[in-house]
Sequence to fold (151 residues):
Amino acid sequence: MKDEDHRLIAEWAVKCAAHALRYFESEEPEDNRPRKALEAAMAWVHGEITVDEAKRWTWETGNSARGKLGAAKYAALSAGQAAAVAHVAAHGLGAAAYAIRAVMAASDETARVEAGTIECRWQRDQLPETIRELVIEDQKNRNEICWNVFT
Fold:
C-alpha cells in the first residue's frame, strides 16, 4: 500500500468516527479523549506526530469507553480505531464498523438494521475515489469479523 493511500484511509476513518462522536460527547461532555484521538489521527496524516504518538490515543479512548454501554462506547472505540490507523491501515475498518455500531445502538430496535445500512452508505460516500475499491473489497473480505455491518 502506498503511503498516500494509508493517509487517505486514516482521513476517511476520522470522518467515520467523527460522524458518530456525538453519541459519546452527549453522554460525556467533559471527556475529550475521543476527540483528541481524532485530532491525533489527523496530525499523523499531516506528518505532525509519530505513529506511536497517534497510537497512544487508541489506549486513551479505550479507557474512555470503559464502563460505557451502547452508542457512547462504540463511538469512543471508533475514535480509538481511527487513531490506530497510523499503525495499521486495516484499523480504518474498525473505525467504520464501530461507528456503524454506534448508530445502530442509538436507533430504535425496529430501525437498527436500516440505520446501520444508511450509515454504511454515508461512509462509502466519503471514500476518496483512489481508495474506494480497495476499502470496499476489504470490507467484503472482513465483513464477518466486523459484525457484518458492511452491507
